[in-house]
Amino acid sequence: MNKLLHILLTAAALSVCLVAHSQTNSFTKTSVPRQQPQGEFSVFSSITKYMAAGDEVSLSSWFADNLDVTVLSTSRNCSKKQAREILRSFFASNTPRSFQVTHRASESNKKYLIGILNAGGELFQVTIYATSNGSDTYKIQQLNISRQIAAY
């Protein structure tokens, strides 16, 4: 079920990106959609700051008790503590320099973002899915980090 949800959410994110691309007729890695107010996505303010700093300890405070983590093609469902260690290892090998949000979206109690992490001399695409249990508290359910494919 988690893999199906992951596939569906990824497909939805890609569809939104393609629509945004076709509407603007240009894609830049640093653009943030103007139509969505920051207040609706304030949940990501701290998360993006921690990604840019490579602060896996603070970032892990946003993790659900169990979450899906994919880092460079290695996927696993793990505990908050295990996910923190995976990110610690990634950040140790890839020192973050910056993190730029390229897309944000929401649907009922779900929010997700796509961003570009400049780390260790490479660019990585980061996708984060967070859900709420009905309150205003969101927890990261999925975190994906993959190498950025060069644009044509």
Describe the structure.
Helix content is 35%, strand content 38%. By secondary structure, the protein is an alpha+beta fold. The protein has a 6-stranded mixed sheet, with helices on both faces. The protein is globular. The protein starts with a helix and ends in a 5-residue tail after the last strand.
Summarize the structure.
With 152 residues, the protein is of the alpha+beta class. Helices cover 35% and strands 38% of the residues.
Strand arrangement across the biggest beta sheet? 2-1-6-5-4-3
Assign the structural class, choosing from mainly alpha, mainly beta, alpha/beta, alpha+beta, or little secondary structure: alpha+beta
- Mean pLDDT score, rounded? 78
**Whole-number radius of gyration?**
15 Å
What is the strand content? Answer: 35-45%
Instruction: Assign an overall shape.
Output: globular
Main sheet properties: 6 strands, mixed
**Residue share in helices?**
25-40%
How do the strands and helices of this protein lay out in sequence?
Blueprint: H1 2-24, H2 43-53, H3 56-60, E1 63-71, E2 74-79, H4 80-93, E3 96-107, E4 110-119, E5 122-132, E6 138-147
Descriptive key words:
152 residues, alpha+beta, six-stranded mixed β-sheet
